UniProtKB/TrEMBL annotation:
Enzyme Commission (EC) number: 3.4.21.89
Catalytic residues identified in the record: 35, 75
Enzymatic class: hydrolase
Protein's name according to its UniProt entry: Signal peptidase I
Length: 197
């Protein structure tokens, strides 16, 4: 028995540690849809960390429930509990302070150029949504100027592709218990492998 433990003990511990990490801390997830373009693409495979502390602008995986069905979505944290979030023609203010969303710059520029018509050439529906939009970020009613008070214990989540993303603007805020974890690493496709900042 001692010989077995000596020979197989470290290997068994390693396998156990890997299984436990996989079950309870590092969870693989896949991006479904275009709501996080161009930051994350449909089909990207990611590693989510369950124990991460949530901060503004983190990309998280959350449980979204609609019509009794629950699915996991990948979105960005814009509003923290108790925040007052406002958009005024694509300018974000948080608690009265203007905040830059540099990760939106590429698509906001394309929206200014041709309302994303060439970017959305793969989807007539997306082209129609963009053509009707008055700004890159609007509320569920299409208003370019809107304010949201985030309740305590809730988070306001938006996709990076604001034209096509279904997020807190439509489904409401997300409870802390609905956030499964933070996206930390992309492992597929290999051409885009790396940490998510």
């Amino acid at each position: 028995m001692r010989k077995f433990i000596k020979e197989w003990g470290p290997f068994t511990l390693l396998i156990t540690a890997i299984v436990l990490l996989r079950l309870f801390i590092f969870i693989p997830v896949q991006v479904d849809g275009h709501s996080m373009d161009p930051t994350l693409a449909e089909g990207d495979r990611l590693i989510m960390v369950k124990t991460a502390k949530i901060q503004r602008f983190d990309i998280v995986v959350a449980d979204e429930t609609e019509d009794g069905q629950t699915k996991q979505v990948v979105k960005r944290v814009i509003g923290m509990p108790g925040d007052t979030i406002a958009y005024n023609n694509d300018v974000l203010t948080v608690n009265g302070e203007e905040v830059d969303e540099a990760y939106l710059d590429a698509y906001k520029e394309k929206f200014t150029q041709d309302k994303l018509q060439s970017t959305y050439s793969y989807s007539p529906l997306f082209q129609e949504l963009a053509a009707q939009a008055t700004a890159f970020t609007t509320d569920a009613d299409g208003q370019a100027n809107f304010t949201v008070q985030v309740p305590e214990g809730q988070y306001y989540l938006l996709g990076d592709d604001r034209i096509v993303s279904k997020d807190s603007r439509e489904v409401g805020t997300f409870a802390e218990s609905a956030i499964a974890g933070e996206v930390k690493f992309r492992f597929w496709p290999l051409s885009s492998i790396g940490f998510i900042s």
